[in-house]
Amino acid sequence: MTPAATTEGSGDPRTARTRGKLREALLAACEEQPLDQVSVSDVVRRAGVGRATFYLHYDDLRALAVDACAEIVRQAVDALHAWDEVPPGPDAPPAELVALLEAVRARADLHRSLLRPGGGGPLGELLHRELRQRSISELRRRRPRGSAEDLIASAVAGLFTGVLTDWVHGRTDATPAQLAGGIWRMLLAVHAAAAPR
To answer: What is the pTM of this model?
Structure first.
């Protein structure tokens, strides 16, 4: 689901400010309780806007949550593609990936609320979709057509989203640097296994 009003007035600074307030209010509420326990009333009270204003911008809380997750998703997608023509070796994950995982750990309660076990929730679904699409684009740019782009992109998106989910929910124990190293080695292995022969 996407924000309800993404075309008319999207360039209006007042619209951007209002959406920013609503995103911040939702994220603050999710620091205190799971998303499924947050109400529209709580969000609009924290944001200092009316209920009608909320519905001018978003269809529901889930649409707001997806919008609120957009920045961390962009950072994650960029972190996994933070290299030029030759990816770093298996023992040198991109520094951006380590920094991303440190940021996720710093707000673990929030991310647990938005990232459900199994990779669901607004953060998991958006992350999977955006990472898969970026992977397809990068693969098409770097490899010959017909190099199983869809398969590799699905594996990359599923692997990253699944490992991140388990880590956020305490199912795997690792520092951000250790996790980044493990994720990076697995992603390189996926790419190597699917390389044209």
So the answer is: 0.79
